[in-house]
Amino acid sequence: MKEIIKVAIVDDSKVTLRNLAELIDYDKEIKISGTYSRARIFLDAMKRIDKSEYPDVVLTDIDMPDMNGVNMILVAKAQYPEIKFLILTVHDDESFLFDAIKVGASGYLLKDDKISILINQIKTLIRDGGAPMSPIIARKTLDLVQRIPESKGKVISHELPELTEREIEILKLMVAGHNYEQIATIIHVTKNTVKKHISNMYNKLHISSKAQAIKIANRNGLI
Question: Model-level pTM greater than 0.70?
């Protein structure tokens, strides 16, 4: 039996909170662990929650009155690095997208996505280590990566000399929001080969998560 995925939701719209919680809770593999109408309410609540009850995934809006979702993730990731944060918003602006990625968001989804897609993306994130993104967001991210000037590519090779061309290619695809299976399809290798490349890359960079890899990519001009 698959382990139940605990999901918390942070959104200043009570209607959104109620509807999302009800729809997601229908899935037998997911449990709603809490709903919060403000970022600060969520952060305060986390201080009182036993570690065994921490959510596996937090769905959060960006535009909220007391503290926006990006700043909330920045604060929360420093205290709870094991928790995955997914942006769920109406905003598809590139600035919001990259601000979210830079602070450690594991994915970026739009509120007009079907609930079935959202549920599948949550499961993929926890069980396969994907980087969930709505199709329009993934296209924007990939387009931006492809527009990176050639000179930046040379800087990357200089600053990350230990990474092979294949590993840099996979890192770019991770930044673009592709999961293991999608990367395998794009570069015509098996999923296990992709996992091996990523494991080697993490060892070379002395990191242990996709969020850290994305930060390094940003620092070296991949974003």
Answer: no
